[in-house]
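Might I ask for a little of your time on a matter of protein folding? Here, with my thanks, is the record as I have it:
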Amino acid sequence: MASKENMLSSSAPRPEKKQSLIYNPTFRSVVFQAIAICALVLFVYNIVDNALTNLDARGIATGFGFMSQEAGFGIGLTLIDYDETYSYGRTFFVGLLNTALVSVLGIVLATIIGFLVGIARLSRNWLLNRFAAIYIEIFRNIPLLLQIFFWYFAVLQALPSPRQSLSLGESVFLNVRGLFFTRPVFEEGSVLISIALVIALVFSFGLARFAKKKQEKTGEQTPVFAISITAIIGLPLLAFFVAGMPVSLEYPQLKGFNFQGGFSIIPELAALTLALSIYTASFIAEIVRSGINAVSHGQTEAAMALGLPRNRTLRLVVIPQAMRIIIPPLTSQYLNLTKNSSLAMAIGYPDLVSVFAGTTLNQTGQAIEIIAMTMGVYLTLSLLTSLLMNIYNAKVALVER
C-alpha cells in the first residue's frame, strides 16, 4: 500500500519554478531593442548638435528660410515656369520634376528594350540570338558614366551647328543644341479634345476589364489593342473637327545662334535617357530571359498541342507565368535607374542633384537642409516605385485555392 502511494506521489505534476524576468526571451528582446533605439537616437542627436554648433560658430544660419530667397541663376530645362527671379524653393521643384522626367522616360524605354532583347536572346534565329547576346555583354560591362560620356560627347556633340542643322522639311531640326520640332498650340475650344481623350482612355480601360472577364468565362478573345488605339486616336480627332480645329502649330525658327519656338529636347536629356535606358535594358534582358526559361517547357508543349502559334504562346502562356519571376528583380533595376540618374551632373543635365544639391548648395551653404531634402526625394521615389511594383506583383501572383 505504501509503495502504491509512493508511485502516485511521484507521478503527480510538480509545481513549475517561476522563471526570472531577465531570462524571459521576449522581455530581453524588447529591452535590447529599446537600448539600441536609444543609442541610435543619441548618436544622431550628437551628430546634429555638433554640426549645428559648428555652423553657428562659423556664422552660417540654419533652417529653411533660404527657400524663399531669390535664386538668381537660370536653368536650361524647366517643366514649370521659372526664371532667375524665382526662389530656391522653385529650383527644388524644377530639379525634382527633371529627375522624375528622366527616370520615367528611362524606365519606359529600358523596359521595352529589355523585353525585346531578352526575348531575342531565346530566338531560334542564330543572328538575332547572337546580336542580343553581344548587346547584353557589351553594355552591361561598360560603366554607366562612360556610356553617358559616349552619347553626349562622342555622338551628340559631334552634330552640326544650328546653321547647318539636319532638317526634315520645315518642322524638325537636329543640331548640337538639341532636337527642335513643331509644338501644338491649344486655343479656345480645345478642351473638347481633352474631354474626348479622357473618354477614350476610360473606354479602353473598361474594355480591357470586360475582355478579360469574357475570356475567363468563354475563352473568346477581343481585339482590345486595336479597338483602344482606334478610340484613343479617333475620338480626339473627331472632337478636333467638331470644335473647329482649335489647334495650331508653332514651328521652330532660327534666330541668331539658336532656334526659338516650337518644342525642343536638349542634348543632355537625350544622352542621359539613352545611356540609362540602354545600360539598364541589358540587365532587364537577362532577367526576362531567366524568367522565361524558368517556365516549364510543358506549358509551351501544351499550348502548341492546342494549335496556338509560337507568338501567341509566348504572349498568352509563357510571359504571364514568367512575370511572377521577373517582377521582383525588375523592381531593383527600376530603383537602380532612378538613383543612377544622379550622374546627370557629369554632363550638366539640370536634375535635382545638379540644380539643388549643386548650385543652390554652393550659393546658400545650407548643406544639412539641402542634402537631407535631396536624400528624402530619392528615398520617396524609391519607396513609391517599390509600392507600385509590389501592387502589380500581387495582381499577377499565383492565387492558391
